[in-house]
Design a protein that fits this description.
11 helices, mainly alpha, 4 domains, 414 residues, Butyryl-CoA Dehydrogenase, subunit A, domain 3
Length: 414
C-alpha cells in the first residue's frame, strides 16, 4: 500500500527529538525565570526614579537590562531557527537535532548568566530598591491620610466657628488656614510620586499646625496675661545685674591691662539699651493684654525676651571675662598645664599610629605657641586675655588634629 499524499516523508519519531526538546524545555524555564527577575528589578528602578528623580541606579541598570534582552533574543532566534514540529504539528523531519540542542543550551546558558547579573545588581542596590518600592506603595495611603487630616482640621474649625466665631479672625489662625489651603492645592495638583509624597507630607504638617492654632486660640488671652509676671521678674533681675556691671568693668580696667577688655568697652551701653528695649516691649505687651489684643501681646512678650537675652549675654561677657582674668592671674600655669597635656597626649597618639612624620612637626609648633604665650606673663602688665585666647586656640587646634588622626584610623580599618 502506498503512503497517503498528505503524510509523505513525515516519519521521524518524537523520541528522536528528545535531546533537543529537553534543551528547549530548560531554556524556556530559564526565559521565564529571567523575565520574572528582570521585571521585578525594572519596576523597582522606575519606582526609585519616580521618587528621587535620580538616574544613578537606572544608568547602572542599563547594561544589565541590555544583557538580559540579548539573552532572551538568542532564545527566540533559536526557537525560530530550529522548530521541533512542522506546520502540521508533527515532529520536524528536517531538524538538525544536535544543532538545535546546542542552540537551546547556549541560549539557556546566556539567560542563566544574565539572571545572575540581575541578581548581583539587585544585591548591590537592594536597600534602595526595596525602600523605594515600600515608599511608592505607601503613597496612596499617605495621600488619603493627609486628606483625612485636613478634613478633621477643617471640621474642628467649624466647631470653633459655631462657639466663638471671632477666633477664626486671629492672625495665627488665618495664617495656619492659608497654609493648609496652599498645601491642599499642591496635593490636588498631583504630579509625580515624589511630588505627591512631598505634598501629602506638607498637608499633614499644615493640618497639624491649623489644628494647634485653633485649639490654642481660646487660650491666647490667658497665655499672654500669664507670661507677664515671669517676664517682669526676669527684667527686674536684669536691672539688678546691670547695676553691678559698671563695678565689674571698673575692676577690669583697674586690675588688668587695657588690652584684656578693650573689646568689652561698649558692652555696658549696649546692655543698657537692650534692657530698655525689653522694658519698652513689656510695657506695650501689658497694654495689649489690657486691651484684649492677645496676639499682639504675645509678639511683644517674645520681642521683650529676645532683648532681655541680648542684655543677659552682654552682662555675662563682662562678668565672665573678669572671673577668667582673675583666675589666670592667680595661677597662670593652671591655664597652661591642660594645654601642654593635650599636646603630649596628641604626640603619643600620632607616634602610636605611625603618623609622627606627618603630624610631629605640627604638634611641635603648637608647643612653641604655648611657650610664646607664657613668655608674656613675665612682663609688668601682662595681657592675660591674649594668653587665654592663644591657649584656647592651641587646644582647639590640637583637638582637631586628634579627631583627624582617629578618623583616618577608622577609615583605614574600614
Amino acid at each position: 500500500m502506498s503512503a497517503p499524499w498528505f503524510g509523505g516523508g513525515r516519519n521521524r519519531q518524537a523520541t528522536d527529538l528528545a535531546p533537543a526538546r529537553s534543551a528547549l524545555d530548560g531554556a524556556a524555564q530559564a526565559l521565564i525565570d529571567l523575565d520574572t527577575r528582570q521585571g521585578y528589578v525594572d519596576d523597582a528602578i522606575k519606582s526609585a526614579q519616580a521618587l528621587t528623580g535620580s538616574t544613578e541606579i537606572a544608568r547602572a541598570w542599563t547594561p544589565i537590562a541590555e544583557r538580559a534582552f540579548k539573552a532572551s533574543a538568542e532564545y527566540l532566534d533559536a526557537t525560530a531557527k530550529y522548530p521541533l514540529t512542522d506546520t502540521y504539528g508533527e515532529p520536524n523531519a528536517n531538524l538538525d537535532v544536535e544543532s538545535a540542542r546546542r542552540a537551546f543550551v547556549s541560549a539557556h546558558r546566556a539567560m542563566a548568566d544574565a539572571a545572575s547579573a540581575v541578581d548581583g545588581f539587585y544585591s548591590r542596590y537592594r536597600d534602595q530598591i526595596e525602600a523605594s518600592k515600600r515608599t511608592l506603595a505607601a503613597i496612596p495611603k499617605l495621600v488619603g491620610d493627609a486628606r483625612a487630616a485636613a478634613a478633621a482640621a477643617t471640621d474642628r474649625a467649624g466647631q470653633v466657628a459655631q462657639q466663638q466665631p471671632g477666633l477664626l479672625d486671629l492672625r495665627s489662625v488665618v495664617a495656619a488656614m492659608d497654609g493648609l489651603s496652599a498645601a491642599m492645592s499642591a496635593l490636588d495638583a498631583g504630579g509625580s510620586a515624589a511630588d505627591l509624597q512631598q505634598a501629602a507630607t506638607a498637608v499633614h504638617a499644615a493640618a497639624g499646625a491649623f489644628t494647634e492654632a485653633i485649639n490654642d486660640a481660646p487660650h491666647l488671652a490667658q497665655k499672654a496675661a500669664g507670661s507677664l509676671p515671669s517676664l517682669k521678674t526676669r527684667l527686674d533681675s536684669l536691672a539688678t545685674r546691670m547695676q553691678r556691671l559698671p563695678q565689674a568693668q571698673s575692676a577690669m580696667w583697674r586690675e588688668f591691662s587695657q588690652a584684656s577688655s578693650a573689646d568689652l568697652n561698649e558692652h555696658g551701653r549696649r546692655a543698657d539699651a537692650a534692657l530698655s528695649a525689653a522694658r519698652a516691649d513689656f510695657d506695650k505687651a501689658t497694654t495689649a493684654v489690657r486691651d484684649g489684643r492677645s496676639e499682639d501681646a504675645l509678639e511683644l512678650v517674645a520681642s521683650s525676651r529676645q532683648h532681655a537675652g541680648q542684655a543677659d549675654a552682654l552682662i555675662d561677657d563682662v562678668t565672665g571675662r573678669l572671673e577668667q582674668l582673675r583666675e589666670v592671674k592667680r595661677d597662670p600655669r593652671g591655664a597652661e598645664h591642660p594645654v601642654r597635656f593635650a599636646i603630649r597626649d596628641a604626640q603619643r597618639l600620632v607616634v602610636d599610629r605611625g603618623l609622627a612624620g606627618e603630624w610631629g612637626s605640627v604638634l611641635d609648633a603648637q608647643s612653641a605657641r604655648v611657650d610664646r604665650a607664657m613668655q608674656g606673663m613675665d612682663r609688668p602688665h601682662p595681657d592675660y586675655w591674649s594668653m587665654i585666647t592663644e591657649l584656647r586656640s592651641v587646644r582647639e587646634f590640637v583637638a582637631d588634629i586628634v579627631d583627624r588622626v582617629r578618623q583616618q584610623a577608622r577609615t583605614d580599618r574600614g
